[in-house]
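User: Can you help me understand a structure? I only have the sequence.
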Amino acid sequence: MLFRKRYDEKEVECPCCHKNVKTLVKLNRTKSEFYGRRYTGTDKNYWLICPSCKAVIGAK
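Assistant: Let's start by predicting it. Here is the structure, written out as C-alpha cells:
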C-alpha cells in the first residue's frame, strides 16, 4: 500500500473522452521546477487527472 493511487470522491465528466470518471489526485510538481523563484502559494497543490485518457481536468 506504499504506492496506492488516490482518487477523488466525486465523479465528473471528462471534457476530452466524455466519460464519467473518478479522477486521480496527483501532486503538482511543477512548482519545484522553477529554481530561484519564490513560491507564493497561489498555485494549486494537486491536479485532477482522468484515469482513462490522462488529461488534466482541474486542480485542487
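Now, to help you interpret it: The longest strand covers residues 20-27. The beta strands are 7-13, 20-27, 46-49, 56-59. Let me know which part you'd like to focus on.
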